[in-house]
Protein backbone atom coordinates (compact mmCIF):
# COMPACT_ATOMS: atom_id res chain seq x y z
CA UNK A 1 0.00 0.00 0.00
CA UNK A 2 1.38 3.38 -1.00
CA UNK A 3 0.64 6.14 1.48
CA UNK A 4 -3.02 5.99 2.48
CA UNK A 5 -4.20 4.34 -0.75
CA UNK A 6 -6.15 1.51 0.90
CA UNK A 7 -7.83 0.51 -2.37
CA UNK A 8 -5.27 -2.27 -2.86
CA UNK A 9 -6.65 -4.13 0.19
CA UNK A 10 -9.97 -5.14 -1.42
CA UNK A 11 -11.75 -6.70 1.58
CA UNK A 12 -14.02 -9.64 0.69
CA UNK A 13 -17.76 -9.22 0.58
CA UNK A 14 -18.13 -12.41 2.59
CA UNK A 15 -15.80 -13.22 5.47
CA UNK A 16 -15.75 -15.42 8.56
CA UNK A 17 -15.89 -13.19 11.66
CA UNK A 18 -13.02 -14.00 14.02
CA UNK A 19 -11.93 -10.73 15.63
CA UNK A 20 -13.46 -9.40 18.82
CA UNK A 21 -14.59 -5.80 18.89
CA UNK A 22 -14.91 -3.63 22.02
CA UNK A 23 -17.41 -0.79 21.69
CA UNK A 24 -16.45 1.97 24.13
CA UNK A 25 -19.19 4.52 24.88
CA UNK A 26 -18.35 7.51 27.12
CA UNK A 27 -21.58 8.96 28.47
CA UNK A 28 -22.67 11.89 30.59
CA UNK A 29 -26.39 12.36 31.10
CA UNK A 30 -28.89 11.95 28.22
CA UNK A 31 -30.20 8.57 29.35
CA UNK A 32 -32.87 8.62 26.63
CA UNK A 33 -30.27 8.89 23.86
CA UNK A 34 -28.07 6.22 25.43
CA UNK A 35 -31.02 3.82 25.47
CA UNK A 36 -31.53 4.31 21.73
CA UNK A 37 -27.80 3.84 21.06
CA UNK A 38 -27.81 0.52 22.94
CA UNK A 39 -30.91 -0.61 21.06
CA UNK A 40 -29.06 0.13 17.81
CA UNK A 41 -26.13 -2.00 18.99
CA UNK A 42 -28.48 -4.87 19.78
CA UNK A 43 -29.48 -4.96 16.08
CA UNK A 44 -25.95 -5.23 14.67
CA UNK A 45 -25.31 -7.99 12.14
CA UNK A 46 -21.81 -8.64 13.51
CA UNK A 47 -21.93 -11.63 15.93
CA UNK A 48 -22.91 -10.61 19.46
CA UNK A 49 -20.54 -13.26 20.83
CA UNK A 50 -17.62 -11.29 19.34
CA UNK A 51 -18.92 -7.87 20.47
CA UNK A 52 -18.12 -6.31 23.84
CA UNK A 53 -20.01 -3.14 24.83
CA UNK A 54 -18.59 -0.91 27.58
CA UNK A 55 -20.55 2.14 28.75
CA UNK A 56 -18.53 4.59 30.85
CA UNK A 57 -20.58 6.83 33.12
CA UNK A 58 -18.53 10.03 33.41
CA UNK A 59 -20.04 11.25 36.68
CA UNK A 60 -23.73 11.54 35.82
CA UNK A 61 -26.03 12.41 38.72
CA UNK A 62 -28.22 10.47 39.20
CA UNK A 63 -26.05 7.68 37.73
CA UNK A 64 -26.82 6.20 34.34
CA UNK A 65 -28.51 2.82 34.17
CA UNK A 66 -28.43 0.05 31.59
CA UNK A 67 -31.80 -0.98 30.16
CA UNK A 68 -32.89 -4.54 30.68
CA UNK A 69 -31.74 -7.11 28.17
CA UNK A 70 -28.66 -5.20 27.02
CA UNK A 71 -25.34 -7.00 26.66
CA UNK A 72 -23.43 -3.91 27.75
CA UNK A 73 -21.62 -3.48 31.05
CA UNK A 74 -21.31 -0.24 32.95
CA UNK A 75 -18.16 1.22 34.49
CA UNK A 76 -17.73 4.56 36.23
CA UNK A 77 -15.13 7.28 35.62
CA UNK A 78 -15.30 10.09 38.18
CA UNK A 79 -12.62 12.23 36.53
CA UNK A 80 -14.47 14.58 34.15
CA UNK A 81 -13.71 14.69 30.45
CA UNK A 82 -14.51 12.52 27.47
CA UNK A 83 -10.88 11.50 27.05
CA UNK A 84 -10.76 10.28 30.66
CA UNK A 85 -13.96 8.30 30.13
CA UNK A 86 -12.66 6.75 26.94
CA UNK A 87 -9.38 5.79 28.58
CA UNK A 88 -11.33 4.14 31.41
CA UNK A 89 -13.29 2.10 28.86
CA UNK A 90 -10.09 1.35 26.94
CA UNK A 91 -8.51 -0.09 30.08
CA UNK A 92 -11.48 -2.46 30.40
CA UNK A 93 -11.56 -3.46 26.72
CA UNK A 94 -10.41 -6.92 25.66
CA UNK A 95 -11.21 -6.80 21.93
CA UNK A 96 -8.89 -6.98 18.92
CA UNK A 97 -10.55 -3.80 17.65
CA UNK A 98 -11.60 -0.71 19.61
CA UNK A 99 -14.77 0.97 18.38
CA UNK A 100 -15.23 4.51 19.72
CA UNK A 101 -18.93 5.37 19.83
CA UNK A 102 -20.54 8.48 21.26
CA UNK A 103 -23.56 8.08 23.49
CA UNK A 104 -25.77 10.04 21.06
CA UNK A 105 -24.83 8.18 17.84
CA UNK A 106 -27.12 5.38 16.63
CA UNK A 107 -25.53 2.88 14.26
CA UNK A 108 -27.41 1.35 11.35
CA UNK A 109 -27.56 -2.47 11.65
CA UNK A 110 -24.64 -3.31 9.34
CA UNK A 111 -22.24 -0.61 10.57
CA UNK A 112 -19.97 -2.69 12.80
CA UNK A 113 -19.82 -5.49 10.22
CA UNK A 114 -18.79 -2.93 7.57
CA UNK A 115 -15.95 -1.85 9.85
CA UNK A 116 -14.84 -5.36 10.74
CA UNK A 117 -14.56 -6.56 7.14
CA UNK A 118 -11.71 -4.06 6.83
CA UNK A 119 -10.08 -5.10 10.10
CA UNK A 120 -10.12 -8.74 8.97
CA UNK A 121 -8.12 -7.61 5.91
CA UNK A 122 -5.23 -5.78 7.62
CA UNK A 123 -4.16 -5.19 11.26
CA UNK A 124 -3.22 -1.50 11.00
CA UNK A 125 -6.45 0.27 10.05
CA UNK A 126 -8.68 3.00 11.43
CA UNK A 127 -12.20 3.05 9.93
CA UNK A 128 -14.75 5.86 10.25
CA UNK A 129 -18.50 5.79 9.66
CA UNK A 130 -20.55 8.30 7.69
CA UNK A 131 -22.60 10.21 10.26
CA UNK A 132 -25.74 12.18 9.52
CA UNK A 133 -27.12 14.72 11.98
CA UNK A 134 -30.83 14.55 12.67
CA UNK A 135 -33.07 16.96 14.53
CA UNK A 136 -36.07 14.62 14.45
CA UNK A 137 -37.93 14.16 17.76
CA UNK A 138 -36.51 11.31 19.84
CA UNK A 139 -38.72 8.21 19.72
CA UNK A 140 -39.43 6.23 22.86
CA UNK A 141 -38.23 3.06 21.17
CA UNK A 142 -35.85 2.77 18.25
CA UNK A 143 -37.95 2.30 15.10
CA UNK A 144 -37.22 -0.42 12.58
CA UNK A 145 -36.72 2.03 9.70
CA UNK A 146 -34.07 4.49 10.89
CA UNK A 147 -34.08 6.41 7.65
CA UNK A 148 -37.80 7.06 7.83
CA UNK A 149 -37.50 8.14 11.45
CA UNK A 150 -34.43 10.37 11.28
CA UNK A 151 -34.43 11.85 7.78
CA UNK A 152 -34.13 14.52 6.56
CA UNK A 153 -30.70 14.76 8.16
CA UNK A 154 -27.54 16.74 7.40
CA UNK A 155 -24.28 15.03 6.46
CA UNK A 156 -21.02 15.50 8.33
CA UNK A 157 -20.09 18.31 5.91
CA UNK A 158 -16.46 18.69 6.97
CA UNK A 159 -15.80 14.94 6.70
CA UNK A 160 -17.55 14.63 3.35
CA UNK A 161 -15.59 17.58 1.98
CA UNK A 162 -12.28 16.09 3.19
CA UNK A 163 -13.09 12.73 1.60
CA UNK A 164 -14.20 14.27 -1.71
CA UNK A 165 -11.15 16.58 -1.94
CA UNK A 166 -8.72 13.68 -1.48
CA UNK A 167 -10.47 10.96 -3.50
CA UNK A 168 -11.44 9.12 -0.35
CA UNK A 169 -8.10 9.98 1.38
CA UNK A 170 -6.22 7.95 -1.26
CA UNK A 171 -4.55 10.80 -3.17
CA UNK A 172 -1.58 11.51 -0.91
CA UNK A 173 -3.64 13.40 1.66
CA UNK A 174 -1.19 15.25 3.95
CA UNK A 175 -3.29 14.73 7.09
CA UNK A 176 -5.43 11.58 6.77
CA UNK A 177 -5.45 11.25 10.56
CA UNK A 178 -8.02 14.08 10.67
CA UNK A 179 -10.57 11.38 9.85
CA UNK A 180 -10.11 9.87 13.33
CA UNK A 181 -13.20 11.31 14.98
CA UNK A 182 -14.64 9.60 18.01
CA UNK A 183 -18.34 9.60 17.07
CA UNK A 184 -18.20 6.23 15.28
CA UNK A 185 -14.62 5.19 14.52
CA UNK A 186 -12.82 1.88 14.99
CA UNK A 187 -9.09 1.16 15.21
CA UNK A 188 -6.94 -1.92 15.65
CA UNK A 189 -6.21 -2.44 19.35
CA UNK A 190 -2.55 -3.17 18.63
CA UNK A 191 -2.16 0.26 17.07
CA UNK A 192 -3.81 1.86 20.09
CA UNK A 193 -1.35 0.07 22.34
CA UNK A 194 1.57 1.46 20.34
CA UNK A 195 0.14 4.99 20.05
CA UNK A 196 -1.06 5.20 23.64
CA UNK A 197 -4.39 6.30 25.14
CA UNK A 198 -6.12 9.60 24.60
CA UNK A 199 -4.45 12.74 25.95
CA UNK A 200 -6.68 13.70 28.88
CA UNK A 201 -4.80 16.98 29.34
CA UNK A 202 -6.50 18.29 26.22
CA UNK A 203 -9.80 20.11 26.63
CA UNK A 204 -10.95 19.40 23.07
CA UNK A 205 -9.33 17.85 20.01
CA UNK A 206 -8.42 14.57 21.72
CA UNK A 207 -9.71 12.50 18.79
CA UNK A 208 -7.51 14.27 16.25
CA UNK A 209 -4.44 14.24 18.49
CA UNK A 210 -4.81 10.50 19.01
CA UNK A 211 -5.38 10.09 15.27
CA UNK A 212 -2.05 11.82 14.66
CA UNK A 213 -0.26 9.40 16.99
CA UNK A 214 -1.96 6.47 15.25
CA UNK A 215 -0.74 7.89 11.93
CA UNK A 216 2.78 8.09 13.32
CA UNK A 217 2.44 4.44 14.34
CA UNK A 218 1.66 3.44 10.74
CA UNK A 219 -2.14 3.51 10.63
CA UNK A 220 -4.19 3.70 7.43
CA UNK A 221 -7.43 5.72 7.62
CA UNK A 222 -10.53 4.58 5.76
CA UNK A 223 -13.94 6.28 5.35
CA UNK A 224 -16.53 3.51 5.01
CA UNK A 225 -19.79 4.64 3.34
CA UNK A 226 -21.52 1.34 4.20
CA UNK A 227 -21.11 2.13 7.89
CA UNK A 228 -23.81 4.71 8.49
CA UNK A 229 -24.98 6.32 11.71
CA UNK A 230 -27.33 9.03 12.99
CA UNK A 231 -26.21 11.66 15.45
CA UNK A 232 -29.18 12.57 17.65
CA UNK A 233 -29.12 16.36 17.43
CA UNK A 234 -26.33 18.79 16.50
CA UNK A 235 -22.90 18.53 18.11
CA UNK A 236 -21.35 21.15 20.37
CA UNK A 237 -18.82 21.89 17.59
CA UNK A 238 -21.64 22.59 15.15
CA UNK A 239 -23.18 25.01 17.62
CA UNK A 240 -19.96 26.76 18.70
CA UNK A 241 -17.35 25.97 16.07
CA UNK A 242 -15.36 29.22 16.28
CA UNK A 243 -15.09 29.07 20.07
CA UNK A 244 -14.10 25.40 20.04
CA UNK A 245 -11.53 25.93 17.29
CA UNK A 246 -10.03 28.77 19.31
CA UNK A 247 -9.52 26.48 22.30
CA UNK A 248 -8.46 23.47 20.26
CA UNK A 249 -5.86 25.31 18.20
CA UNK A 250 -4.22 26.75 21.29
CA UNK A 251 -3.42 23.24 22.55
CA UNK A 252 -3.06 20.95 19.53
CA UNK A 253 -0.48 23.24 17.90
CA UNK A 254 1.99 22.09 20.56
CA UNK A 255 1.19 18.40 20.05
CA UNK A 256 0.55 17.97 16.31
CA UNK A 257 3.57 19.15 14.28
CA UNK A 258 1.75 18.32 11.04
CA UNK A 259 -0.43 21.38 11.68
CA UNK A 260 2.30 23.73 10.45
CA UNK A 261 -0.32 26.38 9.64
CA UNK A 262 -0.84 26.76 13.43
CA UNK A 263 2.89 27.23 14.02
CA UNK A 264 3.29 30.70 12.60
CA UNK A 265 5.92 31.99 15.01
CA UNK A 266 9.29 31.99 13.21
CA UNK A 267 11.53 30.97 16.14
CA UNK A 268 9.66 29.58 19.15
CA UNK A 269 9.89 25.96 20.28
CA UNK A 270 7.11 23.41 20.61
CA UNK A 271 6.39 20.38 22.77
CA UNK A 272 6.74 18.10 19.74
CA UNK A 273 9.16 19.41 17.09
CA UNK A 274 8.65 18.90 13.37
CA UNK A 275 12.14 17.48 12.86
CA UNK A 276 14.65 15.79 15.15
CA UNK A 277 18.23 15.60 13.90
CA UNK A 278 20.52 12.87 15.24
CA UNK A 279 24.33 13.24 15.35
CA UNK A 280 27.06 10.98 16.74
CA UNK A 281 28.60 12.93 19.60
CA UNK A 282 31.77 10.82 19.72
CA UNK A 283 33.14 12.01 16.36
CA UNK A 284 35.20 14.88 17.79
CA UNK A 285 34.35 18.28 19.21
CA UNK A 286 34.93 20.35 16.04
CA UNK A 287 33.12 17.89 13.77
CA UNK A 288 30.10 17.60 16.08
CA UNK A 289 29.92 21.33 16.66
CA UNK A 290 30.01 22.10 12.93
CA UNK A 291 26.98 19.90 12.25
CA UNK A 292 24.96 20.92 15.30
CA UNK A 293 25.55 24.65 14.85
CA UNK A 294 24.65 24.44 11.16
CA UNK A 295 21.37 22.72 12.01
CA UNK A 296 20.51 25.21 14.75
CA UNK A 297 21.11 28.05 12.27
CA UNK A 298 19.05 26.47 9.49
CA UNK A 299 15.85 27.96 8.13
CA UNK A 300 13.96 25.11 9.82
CA UNK A 301 13.44 26.50 13.32
CA UNK A 302 10.95 23.79 14.32
CA UNK A 303 13.79 21.39 15.11
CA UNK A 304 15.67 19.69 17.94
CA UNK A 305 19.05 17.95 17.83
CA UNK A 306 19.90 14.73 19.67
CA UNK A 307 23.64 14.25 20.23
CA UNK A 308 24.34 10.63 21.14
CA UNK A 309 27.32 9.74 23.32
CA UNK A 310 28.39 8.11 26.62
CA UNK A 311 27.68 11.22 28.65
CA UNK A 312 26.92 9.25 31.81
CA UNK A 313 30.53 7.98 31.93
CA UNK A 314 32.18 11.40 31.95
CA UNK A 315 34.20 12.41 34.97
CA UNK A 316 36.15 15.51 33.99
CA UNK A 317 39.67 15.58 35.34
CA UNK A 318 39.88 18.88 37.18
CA UNK A 319 43.67 18.68 37.70
CA UNK A 320 44.81 17.85 34.15
CA UNK A 321 41.88 18.46 31.80
CA UNK A 322 44.09 18.67 28.70
CA UNK A 323 45.24 15.10 29.30
CA UNK A 324 41.71 13.75 29.74
CA UNK A 325 41.22 10.98 27.11
CA UNK A 326 37.55 12.00 26.93
CA UNK A 327 38.31 15.69 26.48
CA UNK A 328 36.34 15.98 23.19
CA UNK A 329 33.28 14.44 24.82
CA UNK A 330 33.66 16.81 27.75
CA UNK A 331 33.82 19.78 25.35
CA UNK A 332 30.72 18.66 23.43
CA UNK A 333 28.85 18.09 26.68
CA UNK A 334 29.86 21.43 28.12
CA UNK A 335 29.15 23.32 24.91
CA UNK A 336 25.54 22.10 24.54
CA UNK A 337 24.52 21.20 28.08
CA UNK A 338 22.35 24.30 28.40
CA UNK A 339 21.15 24.67 24.80
CA UNK A 340 17.39 24.11 24.94
CA UNK A 341 17.15 22.66 21.43
CA UNK A 342 19.95 20.13 21.94
CA UNK A 343 19.49 16.94 23.95
CA UNK A 344 22.53 14.96 25.07
CA UNK A 345 21.42 11.31 25.10
CA UNK A 346 23.29 8.08 25.83
CA UNK A 347 21.06 6.31 23.31
CA UNK A 348 19.06 7.58 20.38
CA UNK A 349 15.88 9.09 21.76
CA UNK A 350 13.31 10.40 19.30
CA UNK A 351 9.74 11.21 20.27
CA UNK A 352 7.53 8.93 18.11
CA UNK A 353 5.27 11.92 17.46
CA UNK A 354 8.03 13.76 15.54
CA UNK A 355 7.17 13.57 11.81
CA UNK A 356 10.75 13.54 10.46
CA UNK A 357 14.15 12.32 11.68
CA UNK A 358 17.29 13.68 10.01
CA UNK A 359 20.49 11.64 10.48
CA UNK A 360 23.59 13.69 9.78
CA UNK A 361 27.10 12.16 9.85
CA UNK A 362 29.36 14.24 12.08
CA UNK A 363 31.82 16.36 10.15
CA UNK A 364 29.30 17.35 7.49
CA UNK A 365 27.72 20.78 7.39
CA UNK A 366 24.37 21.34 5.64
CA UNK A 367 23.59 24.70 4.10
CA UNK A 368 21.19 26.95 5.92
CA UNK A 369 18.36 26.03 3.59
CA UNK A 370 19.38 22.42 2.87
CA UNK A 371 17.03 20.79 5.35
CA UNK A 372 14.10 22.98 4.28
CA UNK A 373 14.63 21.95 0.65
CA UNK A 374 14.74 18.25 1.60
CA UNK A 375 11.54 18.59 3.63
CA UNK A 376 9.79 20.29 0.72
CA UNK A 377 10.83 17.40 -1.53
CA UNK A 378 9.61 14.79 0.96
CA UNK A 379 6.24 16.50 1.37
CA UNK A 380 5.71 17.19 -2.33
CA UNK A 381 6.54 13.62 -3.42
CA UNK A 382 5.15 11.87 -0.32
CA UNK A 383 8.54 10.21 0.22
CA UNK A 384 9.39 8.04 3.21
CA UNK A 385 13.15 8.40 2.88
CA UNK A 386 15.59 10.79 1.20
CA UNK A 387 19.23 9.74 1.10
CA UNK A 388 21.79 12.49 0.59
CA UNK A 389 24.97 11.09 -0.98
CA UNK A 390 27.82 12.97 0.71
CA UNK A 391 30.98 11.07 -0.25
CA UNK A 392 31.47 8.06 -2.54
CA UNK A 393 35.09 6.89 -2.15
CA UNK A 394 34.45 3.54 -3.83
CA UNK A 395 31.14 4.05 -5.55
CA UNK A 396 27.47 4.48 -4.47
CA UNK A 397 27.46 1.29 -2.39
CA UNK A 398 30.23 2.72 -0.17
CA UNK A 399 28.81 6.24 0.07
CA UNK A 400 28.52 8.20 3.27
CA UNK A 401 24.95 9.45 3.45
CA UNK A 402 22.67 11.72 5.42
CA UNK A 403 19.08 10.47 5.77
CA UNK A 404 15.76 12.25 6.10
CA UNK A 405 13.26 9.67 7.38
CA UNK A 406 9.49 10.06 7.64
CA UNK A 407 8.59 8.39 10.94
CA UNK A 408 5.09 7.27 9.88
CA UNK A 409 6.47 5.57 6.74
CA UNK A 410 9.04 3.62 8.73
CA UNK A 411 6.37 2.59 11.24
CA UNK A 412 4.17 1.29 8.41
CA UNK A 413 7.16 -0.46 6.84
CA UNK A 414 7.82 -2.33 10.09
CA UNK A 415 4.21 -3.52 10.09
CA UNK A 416 4.26 -4.88 6.53
CA UNK A 417 7.90 -5.87 5.91
CA UNK A 418 8.42 -9.53 5.02
CA UNK A 419 10.82 -11.58 7.18
CA UNK A 420 14.38 -10.69 6.25
CA UNK A 421 13.34 -7.79 3.99
CA UNK A 422 15.52 -4.67 4.42
CA UNK A 423 13.47 -1.96 6.08
CA UNK A 424 14.43 0.62 3.45
CA UNK A 425 12.98 -1.67 0.76
CA UNK A 426 9.68 -1.80 2.65
CA UNK A 427 9.75 2.01 2.98
CA UNK A 428 10.24 2.25 -0.78
CA UNK A 429 7.09 0.17 -1.25
CA UNK A 430 4.85 2.07 1.17
CA UNK A 431 6.06 5.64 0.53
CA UNK A 432 9.00 5.86 -1.84
CA UNK A 433 12.76 6.47 -1.53
CA UNK A 434 14.84 9.04 -3.40
CA UNK A 435 18.59 9.65 -3.51
CA UNK A 436 19.98 13.14 -4.05
CA UNK A 437 23.45 14.60 -4.43
CA UNK A 438 24.96 16.32 -1.40
CA UNK A 439 26.91 18.87 -3.46
CA UNK A 440 23.74 20.06 -5.14
CA UNK A 441 22.12 20.52 -1.73
CA UNK A 442 24.97 22.56 -0.20
CA UNK A 443 26.46 19.86 2.07
CA UNK A 444 30.17 20.39 2.75
CA UNK A 445 32.94 19.27 5.09
CA UNK A 446 33.90 22.85 5.74
CA UNK A 447 32.51 24.32 8.98
CA UNK A 448 30.52 27.34 7.92
CA UNK A 449 30.01 30.43 10.00
CA UNK A 450 26.22 30.68 10.35
CA UNK A 451 24.92 33.99 9.10
CA UNK A 452 21.43 33.45 10.43
CA UNK A 453 18.29 31.91 9.04
CA UNK A 454 16.97 35.30 8.04
CA UNK A 455 19.57 35.74 5.31
CA UNK A 456 18.93 32.28 3.90
CA UNK A 457 15.20 32.83 4.19
CA UNK A 458 15.48 36.13 2.35
CA UNK A 459 17.59 34.47 -0.32
CA UNK A 460 14.98 31.72 -0.72
CA UNK A 461 12.17 34.28 -0.89
CA UNK A 462 14.14 36.25 -3.47
CA UNK A 463 14.72 33.08 -5.48
CA UNK A 464 11.03 32.25 -5.34
CA UNK A 465 10.16 35.80 -6.40
CA UNK A 466 12.61 35.55 -9.28
CA UNK A 467 11.14 32.19 -10.27
CA UNK A 468 7.67 33.70 -10.16
CA UNK A 469 8.88 36.64 -12.27
CA UNK A 470 10.46 34.33 -14.82
CA UNK A 471 7.32 32.19 -14.88
CA UNK A 472 5.24 35.31 -15.49
CA UNK A 473 7.64 36.45 -18.22
CA UNK A 474 7.53 32.99 -19.76
CA UNK A 475 3.76 33.14 -19.73
CA UNK A 476 3.88 36.57 -21.36
CA UNK A 477 6.22 35.30 -24.05
CA UNK A 478 4.02 32.25 -24.62
CA UNK A 479 1.07 34.61 -25.06
CA UNK A 480 3.15 36.71 -27.46
CA UNK A 481 4.13 33.64 -29.43
CA UNK A 482 0.47 32.66 -29.63
CA UNK A 483 -0.34 36.16 -30.82
CA UNK A 484 2.38 35.95 -33.44
CA UNK A 485 1.14 32.55 -34.56
CA UNK A 486 -2.36 33.96 -34.92
CA UNK A 487 -0.97 36.93 -36.82
CA UNK A 488 1.07 34.64 -39.09
CA UNK A 489 -2.05 32.60 -39.76
CA UNK A 490 -3.88 35.78 -40.72
CA UNK A 491 -0.99 36.71 -42.98
CA UNK A 492 -1.03 33.29 -44.60
CA UNK A 493 -4.76 33.64 -45.15
CA UNK A 494 -4.31 37.11 -46.59
CA UNK A 495 -1.54 35.84 -48.89
CA UNK A 496 -3.80 33.13 -50.22
CA UNK A 497 -6.58 35.64 -50.79
CA UNK A 498 -4.18 38.05 -52.52
CA UNK A 499 -2.90 35.25 -54.72
CA UNK A 500 -6.46 34.44 -55.67
CA UNK A 501 -7.15 38.13 -56.45
CA UNK A 502 -3.94 38.38 -58.53
CA UNK A 503 -4.97 35.27 -60.44
CA UNK A 504 -8.40 36.75 -61.09
CA UNK A 505 -6.89 40.04 -62.21
CA UNK A 506 -4.48 38.23 -64.50
CA UNK A 507 -7.35 36.33 -66.08
CA UNK A 508 -9.35 39.54 -66.50
CA UNK A 509 -6.29 41.29 -68.00
CA UNK A 510 -5.72 38.43 -70.40
CA UNK A 511 -9.38 38.55 -71.44
CA UNK A 512 -9.20 42.32 -71.89
CA UNK A 513 -6.02 42.10 -73.90
CA UNK A 514 -7.53 39.37 -76.06
CA UNK A 515 -10.64 41.44 -76.58
CA UNK A 516 -8.52 44.48 -77.38
CA UNK A 517 -6.52 42.55 -79.98
CA UNK A 518 -9.68 41.21 -81.54
CA UNK A 519 -11.15 44.70 -81.62
CA UNK A 520 -8.02 46.08 -83.23
CA UNK A 521 -8.02 43.34 -85.85
CA UNK A 522 -11.69 43.96 -86.67
CA UNK A 523 -11.18 47.74 -86.79
CA UNK A 524 -8.12 47.45 -89.03
CA UNK A 525 -10.06 45.22 -91.43
CA UNK A 526 -12.95 47.67 -91.50
CA UNK A 527 -10.58 50.57 -92.21
CA UNK A 528 -8.86 48.70 -95.03
CA UNK A 529 -12.16 47.76 -96.59
CA UNK A 530 -13.38 51.37 -96.36
CA UNK A 531 -10.18 52.75 -97.92
CA UNK A 532 -10.28 50.13 -100.67
CA UNK A 533 -13.86 50.98 -101.46
CA UNK A 534 -13.07 54.68 -101.77
CA UNK A 535 -10.11 54.02 -104.00
CA UNK A 536 -12.19 51.85 -106.26
CA UNK A 537 -14.91 54.49 -106.40
Automatic annotation (TrEMBL):
GO terms for molecular function: transferase activity. This is Glycosyltransferase. InterPro entries: Glyco_trans_2-like, Glycosyltransf_2, Nucleotide-diphossugar_trans. It comes from Nonomuraea mesophila. Pfam families: Glycos_transf_2. Residues 460-487 form a coiled coil. It comes from the Bacteria. Keywords: Coiled coil, Transferase. Residues 22-124 form the Glycosyltransferase 2-like domain.
Amino acid sequence: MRGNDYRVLQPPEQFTPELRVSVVIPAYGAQDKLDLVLQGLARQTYPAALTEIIVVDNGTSPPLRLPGGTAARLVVCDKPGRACARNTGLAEATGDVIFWLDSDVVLTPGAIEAHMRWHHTAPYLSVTSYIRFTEAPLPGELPGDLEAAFEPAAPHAWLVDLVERTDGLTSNSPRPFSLHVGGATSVNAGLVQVAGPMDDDLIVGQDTEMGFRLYQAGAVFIPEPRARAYHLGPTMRMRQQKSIDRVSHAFVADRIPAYQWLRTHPTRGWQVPYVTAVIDGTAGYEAVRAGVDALLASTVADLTVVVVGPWDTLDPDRRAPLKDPDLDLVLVHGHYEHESRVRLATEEEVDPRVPFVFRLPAGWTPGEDSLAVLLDLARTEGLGLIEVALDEPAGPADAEVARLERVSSFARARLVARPGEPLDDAVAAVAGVQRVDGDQHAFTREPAQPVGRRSAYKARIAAKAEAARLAKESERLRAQVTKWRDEAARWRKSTVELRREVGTLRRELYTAQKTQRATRTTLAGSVRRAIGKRLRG
